[in-house]
Design a protein that fits this description.
The complex is a heterodimer of chains A (97) and B (297). By secondary structure, chain A is mainly α. Chain A is 54% helix and 0% strand. In chain B, the strands form 2 sheets. A 5-stranded parallel β-sheet of chain B has the order 2-1-3-4-5, sandwiched between helices. A 3-stranded parallel β-sheet of chain B has the order 6-7-8. In chain B, helix 1 packs across helix 9. Chain B is elongated. Classes of the chains: A mainly alpha (97), B alpha/beta (297). Chains A and B meet through helix 2 of A and helix 1 and helix 8 of B.
Chain lengths: 97, 297
């Protein structure tokens, strides 16, 4: 799993999330858009939906179950889930562990 | 159109889909607070009596006796149906407070293999849930503004349909694809009730109603039915159109062809399912198709 592939998976999940949002409230698909944490565009349900969709897709592609969202370290996780770039880095790290 | 979603689980995803869905009618949806199923059913919808109410529950969230069944405790079918009747009483009362009420049929509580051959035994989960759904449908069939939607189709539309992590993190038993399919069905139901359904289907002929080009191949060589994958697909397509026609949707033909040749195919081909009598009208000529459609309509 490399960063561009991980970003593709994240952008697919963002496409699904955009179906839940008004036309004038679409999430931009760029590596630096703030998703979670302060100034993030996702609420908790949006963030859960995104991370679980990504986890499922990664499992389909690699056969490996990775966990991006740990309830136990939710706050600490926020920095890893802040943008598509940081999520992609987290995916690569966990997929190679 | 205002839509109030009443559920025993977190139904924010379906309400967000309903609000964001750009198909007609445009709508604004709101989900009831989590854990407020019966309280929400007993109160008037917050957006007023002209709103649509969509009730989507898990059987174990709506019928307390069903949880006993799931737990393997001795449970009587009569008690389960009494629970369904109580639920229906609340739903029927809610129907009197809104314009249209849609209720999702109940789905099996767990994914996976269940108890295998025991599921359809008289006491099994599958046979009992089927009886509960039947009672729900029978009760609501007596209410003119209430309809049951088949939730199984929503499960079929999403892969995977369930994710246990979704439940434990967000109290949502189904993945986003299921919510999207549910939203589409709710919107379609609203269109049906408000007279916004499609009333006319206009089709072409060559490689649409049949495989092949009638002007080049002759009607005897067109692919319809028979032992041929293309022919069978076209026959099934015609059968689907005929089914819609029987439900009151008009059919028409607009095609660039010689009219006498095309009509001969419709009349003479032994495998044709649609015949001339099934078409409300046609424009079969060499004119511009868009102009033909305008003229026909």
């Amino acid at each position: 799993m490399d960063i561009p592939t991980a970003l593709d998976v994240i952008y697919q999940a963002i496409d699904s999330l955009n179906e839940l949002r008004a036309a004038d409230d679409q999430i931009e698909k760029s590596i630096s858009v703030m998703l979670a944490g302060e100034g993030g565009v996702l609420d908790s349900l949006g963030l859960i939906t995104l991370t679980l969709a990504v986890e499922r897709r990664i499992a389909q592609m690699t056969g490996k179950q990775i966990i991006l969202l740990h309830e136990s370290d939710y706050d600490a996780n926020m920095s890893h889930l802040a943008t598509p770039q940081t999520i992609a880095e987290l995916i690569v790290e966990r997929a190679s562990a | 159109m205002d839509i109030f979603v009443i559920s025993d689980f977190n139904a924010d995803l379906v309400s967000r889909h309903l609000s964001a869905d750009r198909t007609a009618p445009s709508s604004k949806a709101l989900a009831c607070p989590y854990g407020q199923l019966y309280q929400s059913l007993s109160a008037p919808p917050p957006m007023g009596s002209d709103s649509v109410v969509f009730v989507w529950t898990r059987p174990e969230g709506a019928i307390s006796e069903w949880q006993s069944q799931l737990d393997g405790r001795p449970t009587q079918m009569e008690d389960l149906l009494a629970g369904v009747d109580l639920f229906c009483d609340a739903v029927v009362a809610q129907a009197g407070k809104c314009r249209l009420l849609l209720v999702a049929s109940w789905l099996p509580s767990q994914a996976g293999r269940g108890l295998g051959m025991l599921d359809w035994s008289p006491d099994g989960n599958a046979s009992r849930l089927a009886q509960m759904n039947l009672r729900l449908a029978q009760r609501l069939s007596q209410v003119k503004n209430a309809f049951v939607l088949d939730a199984q189709k929503w499960i079929d539309a999403a892969q995977p349909a369930r994710d246990s992590k979704f439940w434990y993190l967000a109290k949502t038993p189904f993945t986003e694809g299921v919510h999207k399919a549910a939203s589409a069905d709710v919107k379609a139901a609203i269109r049906g009730v408000t007279g916004q359904t499609r009333k006319l289907i206009i089709v072409d002929l060559d490689d649409t109603l049949w495989g092949g080009i009638v002007g080049d191949d002759g009607w005897q060589n067109l692919k319809i039915g028979g032992h041929d994958p293309i022919g069978e697909a076209h026959a099934d397509f015609q059968r689907a159109l005929l089914s819609l026609n029987h439900r009151g949707i008009a059919l028409a033909v607009v095609s660039k062809n010689t009219e006498s040749t095309a009509l001969e195919s419709i009349d003479q081909h032994p495998e044709m399912i649609l015949r001339r009598k099934n078409f409300a009208g046609w424009r079969i000529n060499w004119n511009d198709k868009a102009g033909n459609i305008v003229e026909l309509v």
